[in-house]
Amino acid sequence: MAKAVTKTPKPLKADAPPRAEKASTSSLSRTAYEFVRRAIQIGQYSPGDRIREEEIADQLGVSRTPVRDAMRRLEADGFLVHESHRGMTIAQFDHQTVMELYAMWNVLEGAAASMAARHAADAEIELLEEYIALEPAEAVTAERMAEHNRKFHQAIYRSAHNRYLLKTLSVLSDSLDFLSRTTFTIGARRELAQVEHRAIVDAIRARDPEGAEKAARAHIRAALRARLTLLAETPDS
């Protein structure tokens, strides 16, 4: 795994909410949690970077107490780790972590697609078709495709009509969001993903649960192969 390099503190690009001196500590803690999480998602911090309470508190215009609470929650959720002599740093996802995440994603994604084939309303299927139609334009850059891909999968999850599955996938998606670099930077991954997405939606439209699950699992396996390629390109990963 690559050694982390401490960056010079810089203002975060995540939008800071207006100061709210009278807000409760729990409310400020939630605000700080979402602020830091967003900063990581947009690449303001990279895996292994140190994150300082005082920096976040200054950005939000609050005391360090709610920020400290937020960082403890981020640590409990696996997004931050405490390192001796460095303090809190952004978690680094190694090979084993990636394998575990994708193993669960494979199972849950397949289940979501299968349930969507059974329960999706016609309007929800039409929305998936609209996402498919947009993909050639969204695939012009890896970043745009990654954002579009997230929306596409969220639409499938909602179409499954299972609150518990949706909640579980939401937690897993949060973890996947913290993986450095999108797999859509690799070769023809953007083009292949479009073909895979089409296969999933075709099975859902045909009300074919087994076909939808099979297509979804094949999609995740392809995504894993791309992720492992990225890991192989990272020194000491």
Condensed summary:
With 237 residues, this protein is mainly alpha-helical.
CATH level 1 name of the largest domain: Mainly Alpha
CA-atom Rg in angstroms: 19 Å
Total strand count, please?
A: 2
Percentage of β-strand residues: under 5%
The H-level CATH homologous superfamily of the largest domain, spelled out, is GntR ligand-binding domain-like
Instruction: Count up the helices.
Output: 9
User: Main sheet, how many strands, which sense, barrel?
Assistant: 2 strands, antiparallel
Structural class: mainly alpha
Percent helix? 55-70%
Q: CA-to-CA gap between the ends? A: 4 Å
**Pattern of helices and strands:** HHHEEHHHHHH
Poorly predicted regions: 1-9, 18-22
Mean pLDDT: 87
Briefly note the CATH topology name of the largest domain.
Answer: Four Helix Bundle (Hemerythrin (Met), subunit A)
Specify the CATH architecture of the largest domain: Up-down Bundle
* Strand order in space, largest sheet: 1-2
Our count of domains comes out at 2
**Coarse morphology:** globular
